[in-house]
TrEMBL record:
InterPro entries: MBLAC1, Metallo-B-lactamas, RibonucZ/Hydroxyglut_hydro. It catalyses: a ribonucleotidyl-ribonucleotide-RNA + H2O = a 3'-end ribonucleotide-RNA + a 5'-end 5'-phospho-ribonucleoside-RNA + H(+). Gene3D superfamilies: Ribonuclease Z/Hydroxyacylglutathione hydrolase-like. Its main location: cytoplasm. It is found in: Cytoplasm, Cytosol. Homodimer. Belongs to the metallo-beta-lactamase superfamily. Glyoxalase II family. SUPFAM superfamilies: Metallo-hydrolase/oxidoreductase. This is Metallo-beta-lactamase domain-containing protein 1. It comes from Molothrus ater (Brown-headed cowbird). It comes from the Eukaryota.
Length: 210
């Protein structure tokens, strides 16, 4: 496969629409540090309003405004899916105390009620059958997940966290991976089913099968 950059993504769909509220980035500095934050993506239009990743805690002052631009308040978010537990993806969970929370393989709601599911065994979690499901995509971290939105006007959109750093990340992602072999399988699985991928630290891109 190869990838094709899409630029800013706002995909209207028959039921759910997918909006990247903030495109993630990772910019290295000469001293070996880097300036980074994760992509933040909103899915709305159906009975669920889902936020995938919340950015780092430094994003908190901007997050309500990013949501409000799409007519959403934090209290309207029914589900928060955090692809993995790194601070640039999971930094603002307490903005959404009323939402069902999935952080990696931990699913909870209310005041700490943890719910059973099969993600750790490789089974997807259906949020809205036929429309939204969470798939285990281990590798970058062991308990990494991606959200798949089916039936949008762009086809299937995978909000993939750091399974993909960005659309041209070959030669880069392995150095950031806890389990590169597992991540390679996860990446292959995503490109096999997705038409568009929202990566963790770059612009959305289209999967072009050859």
């Amino acid at each position: 496969y190869r990838t094709s950059p899409l630029g800013s993504l706002s995909i209207p769909g028959p039921l759910y629409s997918v909006h990247v509220l903030r495109v993630g980035y990772n910019r290295p500095n000469p001293d070996g540090s880097c300036l980074a934050d994760g992509s933040v993506t909103l899915l709305l239009g159906g009975p669920l309003t889902v936020l995938v990743d919340t950015g780092g805690p430094w994003l908190r002052p901007l997050l309500p405004g990013l949501l409000a631009a799409h007519g959403v308040a934090p209290r309207d978010v029914t589900h928060v899916v955090v692809t993995h537990g790194h601070s640039d993806h999971a930094g603002n969970l307490n903005v959404f105390p009323g939402a069902t929370l999935l952080v990696g393989f931990d699913l909870s709601r209310g005041e700490g009620l943890y719910l059973p599911h099969g993600l750790a065994r490789g089974a997807p979690l259906e949020l809205h059958p036929g429309h939204l499901r969470v798939a285990p995509t281990p590798g970058h971290t062991r308990a990494h997940v991606s959200l798949l939105a089916e039936g949008t006007s762009a086809g299937t959109v995978a909000v993939a966290g750091d399974a993909f750093e960005h659309g041209e990340d070959e030669g880069e992602w392995e150095a950031l991976s806890e389990e590169p072999d597992a991540q390679r399988r996860s990446r292959e699985g995503l490109v096999a089913v997705a038409d568009v991928i929202v990566p963790g630290h770059g612009e959305p891109f289209r999967v072009v099968r050859e």
